């Protein structure tokens, strides 16, 4: 990565140690969703007020108990440039005692090894948040006079889809002040690629009714018997076996979907160069599987809980209909299911929309030019394979949103040994700083 010659770039190089120390302290605040108050009130808000030159710093909290604070900040331009909103969440996926055993380091006490900083939230997304905060700090310290406003929201609630307390509330607070926001740059980890669209997701639950019977009677449920001996579903029905059949059918349906849907950005693996995530735009994730409740009884009930990720150009109603067709077709060859069809429910927890912005959007093109200038590499336009606050900012607040951030979901996000490559971290900080200047129309008097 080339070192930029601009004053903001040099300032970032000179303050790399402080940036990393800030991130380490940020990670030490254990802030799972719904427990973000301490990190927001004790760490982010004081830093914004005391260590940065924001024109205003506001707490936006719409929760009943006043314990879900978002931190909004504004640097006012002279009105001659475009406004830019940065957005990122402080809440993280918690690490249970059982999950912590899979970590090789303490998830709440960050360590640096081989150019990587390890800790919960390093990647998703306290590392990217730190980069955007210190990019703004660099612009301020370099006395850059902006033409447009620079806005920043550090929010709560993202990991449990609680945007009504987080990004929606924070963004609406700016809009209610009469600020026009043409673009939001969310800093979720994208491997420093420009993500112009994302997946959407819905959850589902399928309950399969079987018929309990003592496990010694399994032979009667599975094999023909001589006349007058009860067999099959007269005796019992193994809901676990039906579940296994259904899982196999869903795997085949998922394969068909991935062969069917193609897209330059999302299904094609990035453009104009390949992205870091690979192709494959759709997934049927059967994540919680349960069958039976007693070791000596053939399972009389089984449940599948999971969720589907799908691209923004696919109709979720059609996908759900095809999943229902799979269940219905299984019943055609299964006498028990014909009389006792599985119960299917969807969108009980997650109904997370996608976001989508064309590559031709001026903010995408400006960011692409900045990436190329700072990194001396061709920018990669790709799609976020997961979901992010962008979708709600776009759908509920009417603000177009793109993502660019250091790290990658493959780097331990939501799992053990989450890490952030520090070289990417510094590069992203410089890109953010230069994007502020390029988009907001900064006048760098000291260069």
UniProtKB/TrEMBL annotation:
Keywords (A to Z) from UniProt: Hydrolase, Metal-binding, Zinc
Is this entry keyworded Flavoprotein?
no
- Kindly indicate whether the keyword DNA repair belongs to this entry: no
Required co-factor(s) are:
Zn(2+)
Residues in domain Peptidase M20 dimerisation?
204-332
Q: Name one GO molecular function term.
A: hydrolase activity
User: What InterPro entries does the record point to?
Assistant: ArgE/DapE_CS, Bact_exopeptidase_dim_dom, Peptidase_M20, Peptidase_M20_dimer, Peptidase_M20A
Q: Which PANTHER family match?
A: ACETYLORNITHINE DEACETYLASE, PEPTIDASE M20 DIMERISATION DOMAIN-CONTAINING PROTEIN
What name does UniProt use for this protein? Acetylornithine deacetylase/succinyldiaminopimelate desuccinylase-like deacylase
Which source organism?
Natronococcus occultus SP4
């Amino acid at each position: 990565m080339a070192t930029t010659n601009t004053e903001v770039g040099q300032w970032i190089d000179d303050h790399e140690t402080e940036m990393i120390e800030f991130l380490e302290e940020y990670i030490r605040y254990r802030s799972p969703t719904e427990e973000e108050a301490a990190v927001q009130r004790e760490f982010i808000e004081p830093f914004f007020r005391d260590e940065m030159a924001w024109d205003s710093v506001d707490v936006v909290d719409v929760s009943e108990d006043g314990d879900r604070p978002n931190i909004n900040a504004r640097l006012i331009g002279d009105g001659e440039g475009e406004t830019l909103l940065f957005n990122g969440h402080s809440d993280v996926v918690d690490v249970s005692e059982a999950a912590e055993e899979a970590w090789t380091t303490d998830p709440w006490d960050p360590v640096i090894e081989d150019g990587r900083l390890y800790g919960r939230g390093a990647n998703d997304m306290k590392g990217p948040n730190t980069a955007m905060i210190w990019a703004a700090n660099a612009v301020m310290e370099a006395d850059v006079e902006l033409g447009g406003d620079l806005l920043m929201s550090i929010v709560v609630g993202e990991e449990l889809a609680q945007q009504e307390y987080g990004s929606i509330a924070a963004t609406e607070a700016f809009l209610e002040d009469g600020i026009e926001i043409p673009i939001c740059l969310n800093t979720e980890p994208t491997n420093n690629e420009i993500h112009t669209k994302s997946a959407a997701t819905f959850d589902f639950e399928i309950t399969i009714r079987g018929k309990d019977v003592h496990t010694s009677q399994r032979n009667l449920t599975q094999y023909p018997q001589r006349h007058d001996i009860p067999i099959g579903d007269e005796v019992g029905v193994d809901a676990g076996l039906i579940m296994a059949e259904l899982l196999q059918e869903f795997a085949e349906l998922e394969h068909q979907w991935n062969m069917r849907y193609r897209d330059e950005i999302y299904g094609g693996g990035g453009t104009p160069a390949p992205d870091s995530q690979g192709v494959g735009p759709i997934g049927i994730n059967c994540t919680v599987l349960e069958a039976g409740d007693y070791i000596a009884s053939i399972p009389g009930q089984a449940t599948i809980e999971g969720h589907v990720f799908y691209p923004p150009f696919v109709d979720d109603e059609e996908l759900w209909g095809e999943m229902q067709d799979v269940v219905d077709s299984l019943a055609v060859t299964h006498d028990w299911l014909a009389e006792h069809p599985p119960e299917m429910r969807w969108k009980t927890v997650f109904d997370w929309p996608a976001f989508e912005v064309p590559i031709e959007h001026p903010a995408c093109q400006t960011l692409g030019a900045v990436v190329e200038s700072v990194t001396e590499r061709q920018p990669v336009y790709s799609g976020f394979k997961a979901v992010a606050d962008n979708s709600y900012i776009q759908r509920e607040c009417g603000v177009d949103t793109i993502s660019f951030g250091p790290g990658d979901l493959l780097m331990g996000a939501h799992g053990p040994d989450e890490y952030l490559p520090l070289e990417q971290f510094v590069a992203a900080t410089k890109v953010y700083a230069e994007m502020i200047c390029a988009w907001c129309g900064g006048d760098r008097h000291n260069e």
